[in-house]
Amino acid sequence: SEADLEHLFDRTIADDARIEPRDWMPDGYRKTLIRQVAQHAHSEIIGMQPEGNWLTRAPSLRRKAILMAKVQDEAGHGLYLYSAAETLGADRADLTVKLIEGKQKYSSIFNYPTLTYADVGTIGWLVDGAAICNQVPLCRSSFGPYARAMIRVCKEESFHQRQGYELLATMMRGTDEQRAMVQESVNRWWWPALMMFGPPDDKSPNTEQSMQWKIKRHTNDELRQRFVDMSMPQAKALGVTFPDPDLAWNEERGSYDFGEPDWNEFTEVITGNGAANAERIANRRAAHEDGVWVREAAMAFAARNEETNR
Ligand code: 3HC
């Protein structure tokens, strides 16, 4: 009976075991997972744009090759996550239309422009660093396909973070202008990186239920704190500072105290009014519309193949 199925679902979650696509699940569980996994996938795909901006202007072949590999990885993460969403009954073409029509979100961080080359390093170091803080716990998410996708994503994300840090460390050993470029970039990306973790827990409508269903294993504020604690020693080693006068070690908490992000800015950005939202969506719409002929050709080829194989 439905009651037995619900009981089995609850027991599976309680035992920290995995829910698989063919298992019975509450409609709300399916719905919130499609929401989160689709938006995660959209984030990866849109995230290719800020970095892509520097592909043709990387200062060396090595830097260009690394950046090309990273941007291609993000595309792969997106496809992985759209596939995970499809195991829940979503359709990736439909999800793409929802993204383009502004009916689904993508990570706020990608609505900030990449103004200097140091941004390529800062994005790797801080944005992928924040993504790692957020994605490592998702490897233990209760929905099997999502958790398994995260294991591969996290391995590649670690490369992204290391190459970004190494790029900045190289610039910090360069000229005064390069050091100033790094610090200016860090000043622009620090607060938006903190906002990636979502609104404060007491303003997060999804966290409580997502924690109960073990979709999320930590709250937004817990992961944000973990990211600040992880980043401070790295900033010291790099020789940069973060633009937050309230950042200070708190001995009894064993963590850093830090200031409050600008949540009005966050709300503006996630409702589509950020610096680059319109541009990012226009680019995604153009790619989708210019790609109709590719999808039609692939379908025609598949149909003809089916004919000949019949
Ligand atoms: N950007 C855009 N929207 C955000 C957001 C952000 N940084 N943080 C929260 N929101 C949205 C939520 O989606 C939700 O709106 P919705 O109900 O329409 O979906 C609303 O704000 C309230 O937030 P909640 O905290 O209640 O929502 P969640 O419980 O879903 O928590 C989250 C938000 C922490 C982002 C969670 O969805 C999550 O962990 N998602 C998976 C991780 C992810 O998306 N990461 C993207 C990082 S970028 C990336 O990975 C690319 C990297 O390789 C560079």
TrEMBL record:
Biological process annotations from GO: phenylacetate catabolic process
Database matches in InterPro entries: Aromatic_CoA_ox/epox, Ferritin-like, Ferritin-like_SF, PaaA, PaaA_PaaC
GO molecular function: phenylacetyl-CoA 1,2-epoxidase activity
Pfam families linked: PaaA_PaaC
GO cellular component, one term: cytosol
Top-level lineage group: Bacteria
PANTHER family xrefs: 1,2-PHENYLACETYL-COA EPOXIDASE, SUBUNIT A, PHENYLACETIC ACID DEGRADATION PROTEIN PAA
Protein name as catalogued: 1,2-phenylacetyl-CoA epoxidase subunit A
Originating organism: Gordonia lacunae
